[in-house]
């Protein structure tokens, strides 16, 4: 379900319903994350995904952020679309980590309802990236334009536009700030091109790479492991190795075409 100003209230209501479950899942996740000593949420997420055989490939489809794919041996591996702007990729990192971990923490609560599971994964992702302090942070900013302030929040919390607005909207309801609720609704469906975001980020001296795609091609641990094994007499390994190498070549070509503007 795409979230727009029309279903924003419904989305926030749904978030209230799943809040306790997500808070429990956050607690579980934090225990599980204790073994990593990585401070920045996006780098931490990337490391967790890499440990789970992450594949990063650019797929020229702006509606596709990523997925969990099951290998023939039953192993579940995350795939991230690096055609997406980096901020969106960070959000997808945590979204997919939710899917990777949901069955371990509350197996009795796995939802068969697709939209609800997706909302849970999204809500989890925003809780991992955006602190509850967003509201106060937003109001402490000296800038006067709404979009400028949101861009600064995007840069600080490393989260996409709509994720920031939803979280801010929830706080605005909590603080009974009707005016801010209205402003958020008016601006919610704003859709800027990558170039416009880049311009805005540059104007505000923010990191403009965050609003650009990375087009990264990386088969990480998967490639490392098939290359480690001596495969000379094992058909299955040779096939896997050839398959991964061919896939890598294919996506390196896609990357080249994207970078030269051919795609
Ligand atoms: Zn999902």
Structural key phrases:
single chain; 263 residues; mainly alpha; 2 domains; 3-stranded mixed sheet; 61% helix; globular; binds zinc ion; IrrE N-terminal-like domain-containing protein
Protein model, in words:
- By secondary structure, this protein is mostly helical.
- It has two domains: 8-216, no CATH class; 220-263.
- It is 61% helix and 5% strand.
- It contains eleven helices and three strands.
- A three-stranded mixed sheet has the order 1-3-2, with helices on one face.
- Helix 1 crosses helix 4, helix 2 crosses helix 3 (86-105) and helix 3 crosses helix 4 (114-129).
- The model has no long low-confidence stretch (mean pLDDT 91).
- Bound molecules: zinc ion.
- Residues 95, 99, 118, 121 line the site of zinc ion.
- This is IrrE N-terminal-like domain-containing protein.
Number of helices: 11
What is the CA-CA span between the terminal residues?
A: 27 Å
Structural class: mainly alpha
- Arithmetic mean pLDDT: 91
- Integer tally of domains: 2
- As a whole number of angstroms, the C-alpha radius of gyration is 20 Å
Can you count the beta strands? 3
Strand content: 5-15%
Bound heterogens, unique? zinc ion
Q: Which stretches are poorly predicted, pLDDT < 50 over at least 5 residues?
A: none
* Helical residue percent band: 55-70%
Order of helices and strands: HHEEEHHHHHHHHH
Protein name: IrrE N-terminal-like domain-containing protein
